[in-house]
Amino acid sequence: MSSHTAQTELKFLGKLILEGDLHCETGLHIGAGKGSLEIGGADNPVVKDAYGRPYIPGSSLRGRLRSLLEQASGLAVPSELVYISRRKGQEVRIHQSDRPDDEICLLFGRNPGRMERTSGEALESALATPARLTVYDAPLGLDSITPQMRENLDDELTEVKSENAVDRITSQANPRTLERVPAGARFRLRLVMDVLCEEDKELFARVVQGLRLLEDDTLGGGGSRGNGRVRTSGLRLAWRSRDFYAGAGSESDLITGADVAGLQALASSAEFAGKLA
């Protein structure tokens, strides 16, 4: 847990800007929902922007990072989870607590009020915590879809993966199709973390931990069936202090061209907090 306490005062110090590339090692499927089905199209299309280009929604990436960090911190257990949706068949549970040093709640924010726990008494919290971490939509780098790849794609920018679910008794096949962004595609990553007090500086190591967990896990749907393996590269971390936004300071590059291991070494070093002056 962090060194935040109930007496920690928030005072904007600056922002950490992380940019880089997110590469698809296998096909990536982030679904658009059933409302966008087209005649002759895949059963499960990917989400696309107004120009018909696939992208990674910031909400999908942010939610995956949060989920992985909750699991790694031992917080994905009934006593630590609350319902944010209780509709039958569509239950959604996330971690939430009223502890002032809870790093998940500090990074991703929390609202006050009464929330039903998955197990145990309801959570009654008067704490409101602003989210420190912002994750932006990641646009597709069109140059990463090469002419050779386009010749073999089902659509200009995506492929269709056919799958079969087989009944264990009758052996009857139930075919389905899944639209994917192909392996080799590259998306542009941008994360921003607000530093609202000295204690916040230690939270960035958690963000990097989430990215490292993601590289050995999956993003999007069908991860257990081979989809969604990703990696990051060309990471650049910059610091913009309060003076920068007042026009009296300049941006400071903390690391450039790094992989996630190099970024983690920087964020966990004893000198890191001192660089955010």
Helix content: 10-25%
Strand arrangement, largest sheet?
Answer: 7-11-1-12-13
The SSE string, one letter per element, is: EEHEEHEEEEHEEEHEHEHH
SS element count, helices: 7
Q: Sheet with the most strands?
A: 5 strands, antiparallel
The gyration radius over C-alpha positions equals 21 Å
**End-to-end span in angstroms?**
23 Å
How would you sum up the global shape? globular
Query: How many DSSP E strands?
Result: 13
Decide which structural class fits the backbone: alpha+beta
Mean pLDDT: 93
The percentage of residues in β strands lies in 25-35%
Low-confidence stretches: none
Supply the key terms.
single chain, 277 residues, alpha+beta, five-stranded antiparallel beta sheet, two-stranded antiparallel sheet
Question: What does this protein look like?
Answer:
A 5-stranded antiparallel beta sheet has the order 7-11-1-12-13. It is of the alpha+beta class. Helix 4 packs antiparallel against helix 6 (260-267). The chain has a domain at 58-130. It has helices spanning 58-72, 103-108, 147-152, 204-215, 242-245, 260-267, 272-275; strands at residues 14-24, 55-56, 81-85, 92-95, 113-115, 123-125, 133-135, 138-139, 159-166, 173-180, 186-195, 230-241, 252-258. The chain is globular and about 65 Å long. A hairpin with a 6-residue loop joins strand 9 (159-166) and strand 10. The model has no long low-confidence stretch (mean pLDDT 93). The longest helix is centred in the N-terminal third of the chain and has 15 residues, at 58-72.
